[in-house]
C-alpha cells in the first residue's frame, strides 16, 4: 500500500487488493441514510438527487414513509422513523435502534434493542433513571422489556412482560407501592392481574383482567372511592362500587379531589363536594363511596366547576361565585343546571373560576373571572372536553 500527499491536493491512497472486488454496490448503512433523509425532509429536489445517487436512498424513504410515527408534544412533536428518534428541530437523539417511543409532558421513554432509555423532564424522578433533574442525554432505565408506558403528574407506570412497575414522586402513595417514599427507579406494583392503569391528579386507577376497578393515592376527600377514611391509600384497592356496576367501568375522570366513574351512559361520583361539584345535590363536603347521578352522562370535565354532556345537553354545577355557570344562579350550584351558552358550542374548557366555550367558528368565549373573547387559534389552558356534535344555540340560547 502506498500513501501520497500534497499540500494543495486531497490525500490519495493506493490499496493492493489480493482478491477480486465482489459484484455489489457499497453504500452507507441504513441508519445513516435515514438520518440524512430526515435532515432534508422538506427539500424534495435534494431528495431526488439522493435517489439518483443511490437506489438505497429511495428504498429507505419508502420504508420511512411506511413506519413513521409522530408523537405530539407541547414543545413540538417527536418523530420515530427508521429506528431513530428525531425532535421537531435539531439532530436525532443518540440511542440504540428504537423499537417504540412514549412521551408525557416533556418526559420521553424509548424502548430500544438494548433496553429502555429515558430523557427529558425528570423533576421528581419520574423517568426512572435513578436521579432527579432534567436528563439531556438518554439514560438507561433498569427494567425489563417494556410493553407500554403510562405517564401522569410526576408518576410513571411501566407495563412489562412480568407485570407493572412504577416510579416518581409518590407523595400521595399514588404509585400503589405500599409506601409514599419517592421512587427514582422503577419498583414492582404489588397487585397481580392489572390490565391497565390511569394516573392523574395524585390518584391512580387500575383495571384487572375481569374489569375490577382499583384505586390508590390521595384519599383526603374520598376521591379514591374505596369507601374508607384516611389520607392515603398506599396500595391498589378495589373501589366500593355497587354490584350492578362492577366490571362495567369504561373510564374515570378525576381532578381537584373530585372523581367521576363512567360506565355506558351511567356515572357515579365521589370525593370533594365543597361547592356541590359532584352533581349529587348533597350538602356533604366529602363523599367517600361512589354514588350514582340521577341523569345519563356521556362525558364530563371537572375543576371547581363540573360540566356534564348529557343526551346532547350541557349541564353544570359547582362554584358559581364568578358566575361562570349562570348569571341567575347563586354562588354555589349543587343540582346541575343547563349551562348558559352564547351559541352552538363544540368544546368546553375549564380553569379556576372560568368556563371556556368554543363556538363553531373556532372562537373561544370565557365566562367568569377575567372574561374575554379569545382568538380562534388560542386554545385555553386546563382541561378541555371535545363535543362530538355542536350543542346549544337557537331560540333558547342565553347570551353571555
Give the DSSP E fraction (strand runs of 2 or more residues): 35-45%
Helix content: under 10%
Span between N and C termini?
A: 86 Å
Main β-sheet description: 4 strands, antiparallel
Arithmetic mean of pLDDT: 85
Structural class: mainly beta
Characterization of the model:
The chain is mainly beta. Helix content is 8%, strand content 44%. The protein contains three helices and 29 strands. Strands 6-7-8-9 form a four-stranded antiparallel beta sheet, with no helix packed on it. Strands 10-11-12-13 form a four-stranded antiparallel beta sheet, with no helix packed on it. Helix 1 (30-39) packs across helix 3 (55-67) and helix 2 (44-53) packs across helix 3.
Quick recap:
The chain has 400 residues and is mainly beta.
Question: What is this structure's SSE topology?
Answer:
Elements (H helix, E strand, L loop, with lengths): L1 E5 L2 E6 L15 H10 L4 H10 L1 H13 L1 E3 L6 E4 L2 E4 L10 E7 L2 E6 L2 E6 L14 E7 L4 E6 L3 E6 L2 E6 L14 E6 L5 E7 L2 E6 L4 E6 L13 E7 L12 E5 L2 E6 L2 E7 L13 E7 L6 E4 L2 E6 L2 E7 L12 E7 L6 E7 L2 E6 L4 E5 L14 E9 L9
Helix pairs in contact: 1-3, 2-3
Amino acid at each position: 500500500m502506498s500513501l501520497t500527499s500534497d499540500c494543495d491536493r486531497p490525500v490519495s491512497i493506493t490499496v493492493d487488493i489480493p482478491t477480486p472486488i465482489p459484484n455489489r454496490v457499497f453504500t452507507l448503512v441504513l441508519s445513516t441514510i435515514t438520518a440524512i433523509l430526515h435532515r432534508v425532509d422538506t427539500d424534495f429536489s435534494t431528495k431526488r438527487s439522493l435517489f439518483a445517487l443511490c437506489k438505497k436512498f429511495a428504498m429507505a424513504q419508502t420504508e420511512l414513509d411506511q413506519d413513521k410515527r409522530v408523537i405530539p408534544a407541547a414543545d413540538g412533536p417527536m418523530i420515530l422513523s427508521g429506528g431513530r428518534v428525531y425532535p421537531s428541530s435539531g439532530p436525532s437523539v443518540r440511542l440504540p435502534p428504537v423499537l417504540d417511543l412514549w412521551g408525557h409532558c416533556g418526559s420521553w421513554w424509548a424502548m430500544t434493542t438494548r433496553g429502555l432509555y429515558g430523557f427529558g423532564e425528570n423533576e421528581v424522578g419520574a423517568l426512572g433513571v435513578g436521579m432527579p433533574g432534567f436528563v439531556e442525554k438518554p439514560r438507561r432505565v433498569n427494567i425489563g422489556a417494556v410493553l407500554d408506558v403510562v405517564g401522569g403528574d410526576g408518576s410513571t407506570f411501566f407495563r412489562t412482560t412480568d407485570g407493572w412497575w412504577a416510579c416518581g414522586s409518590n407523595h400521595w402513595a399514588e404509585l400503589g407501592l405500599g409506601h409514599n417514599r419517592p421512587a427514582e427507579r422503577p419498583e414492582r406494583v404489588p397487585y397481580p392481574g392489572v390490565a391497565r392503569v390511569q394516573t392523574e391528579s395524585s390518584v391512580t386507577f387500575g383495571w384487572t383482567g375481569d374489569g375490577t376497578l382499583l384505586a390508590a393515592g390521595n384519599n383526603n376527600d374520598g376521591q379514591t372511592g374505596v369507601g374508607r377514611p384516611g389520607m392515603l391509600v398506599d396500595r391498589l384497592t378495589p373501589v366500593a362500587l355497587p354490584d350492578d356496576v362492577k366490571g362495567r367501568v369504561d373510564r374515570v375522570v378525576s381532578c381537584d379531589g373530585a372523581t367521576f366513574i363512567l360506565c355506558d351512559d351511567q356515572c357515579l361520583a365521589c370525593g370533594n363536594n365543597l361547592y356541590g361539584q359532584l352533581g349529587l345535590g348533597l350538602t356533604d363536603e366529602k363523599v367517600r363511596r361512589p354514588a350514582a347521578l340521577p341523569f345519563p352522562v356521556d362525558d364530563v370535565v371537572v375543576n371547581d366547576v363540573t360540566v356534564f354532556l348529557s343526551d346532547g345537553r350541557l349541564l353544570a354545577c359547582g362554584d358559581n361565585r364568578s358566575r361562570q355557570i349562570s348569571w341567575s344562579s347563586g354562588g354555589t350550584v349543587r343540582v346541575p343546571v343547563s349551562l348558559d351558552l352564547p351559541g352552538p358550542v363544540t368544546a368546553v374548557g375549564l380553569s379556576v373560576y372560568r368556563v371556556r366555550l368554543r363556538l363553531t367558528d373556532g372562537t373561544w368565549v370565557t365566562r367568569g373571572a377575567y372574561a374575554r373573547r379569545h382568538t380562534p387559534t388560542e386554545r385555553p389552558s386546563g382541561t378541555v372536553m371535545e363535543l362530538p356534535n355542536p350543542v346549544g344555540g337557537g331560540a333558547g340560547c342565553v347570551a353571555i
